Fold:
Amino acid sequence: MYKYLLQSVEGIQWFGITALLIFFGTFLFALLRVFFNKKNNWEAEARLPLDD
Structure:
């Protein structure tokens, strides 16, 4: 039923493409942040739960 409803919407394929681009953009941002962050920043963040 919903398949026929979505087929009647003009330009519905752009929603899927946009969602995919947002996902990959967020994933790429997280990946770049991991690789280009300094080690001392990670050590400070790793100690945060233990510094009560």
Q: What stands out?
A: The helical segments are 2-7, 13-36, 39-47.
